[in-house]
């Protein structure tokens, strides 16, 4: 069964208790998805406040300005926790997990203006530059750390990066992460001014053809309209996960 535990975190578990696992990556501190607590079960309010203090102190000592918590799959925090989130001005949201078998993905006809290729040592600088300019939205410090993060991913034999061009111009990319018969589609992005041209579809199709015998999974923002596209492409909803975070 596919669960959120199959999602690539880009971090190590540096501490674990009966209540939570602590994910941390000291090399990309600005990436919230790599520095957070994952609860194994839904905490009581007193347990959550203790976990909050623990993570806040840990991050403060290392110059981080956020705390992030992920709750158990398919469980929603109760009223007490929600009141705490509101009182301390924590933002909340949810992620949705989707799964598909490659043969279920709708076939896209070839498009002369769109070329898709696997990233190699020659075109990696193009991939990296595309990400850098997209990541500047989240600050220069994050964008710089992400450059080194992507270099590490590129060297990983279980990770394949894919780049798309539109009329010869870098237009989008996706990262495919292999793990025991499962391939995760991660960071599927298309330049804003080139969306709705079928670029994202062809990036996904490239992954489907590269890994025809694997189960393909991805995560979508529960409040993002892109999840409707995934459903139309025959992805199956497998569950949700609530998140809460605060940025100082």
Give the SSE map:
Layout: E1 12-16, E2 20-24, E3 36-39, H1 45-61, E4 66-70, H2 79-87, E5 91-100, E6 114-118, H3 124-135, H4 140-155, E7 159-166, E8 169-179, E9 182-190, H5 199-210, E10 215-221, H6 226-232, E11 236-247
Parallel strand pairs: 3-4, 9-10
Antiparallel strand pairs: 1-2, 2-3, 4-11, 5-10, 5-11, 6-7, 7-8, 8-9
Q: What would you note in describing this structure?
A:
By secondary structure, the chain is of the alpha+beta class. It folds into two domains: 4-95, Aminopeptidase (3-Layer(aba) Sandwich); 100-239, Aminopeptidase. It is 29% helix and 33% strand. It contains six helices and eleven strands. The chain has helices at residues 45-61, 79-87, 124-135, 140-155, 199-210, 226-232; strands at residues 12-16, 20-24, 36-39, 66-70, 91-100, 114-118, 159-166, 169-179, 182-190, 215-221, 236-247. It has an eleven-stranded mixed beta sheet with strand order 1-2-3-4-11-5-10-9-8-7-6, with helices on both faces. Helix 3 packs antiparallel against helix 4 (140-155). The longest helix is centred in the first third of the chain and has 17 residues, at 45-61. It starts with 11 loop residues before the first strand and ends with a strand. The relative contact order is 0.20. The mean pLDDT is 96.
Could you list some keywords that capture this structure?
248 residues; alpha+beta; Aminopeptidase; 2 domains; 11-stranded mixed β-sheet; 11 strands; 29% helix; 33% strand
In CATH, the homologous superfamily of the largest domain goes by the name Gcn5-related N-acetyltransferase (GNAT)
In the CATH hierarchy, the architecture of the largest domain is: 3-Layer(aba) Sandwich
Overall helicity: 25-40%
| Number of continuous helical runs | 6
Structural class: alpha+beta
Kindly state the number of beta strands. 11
Summarize the biggest pleated sheet.
Answer: 11 strands, mixed
Strand content: 25-35%
Regarding CATH, which class of the largest domain? Alpha Beta
**Could you spell the SSE succession in H and E letters?**
EEEHEHEEHHEEEHEHE
Molecular shape: globular
Please indicate the count of domains: 2
Low-confidence stretches: none
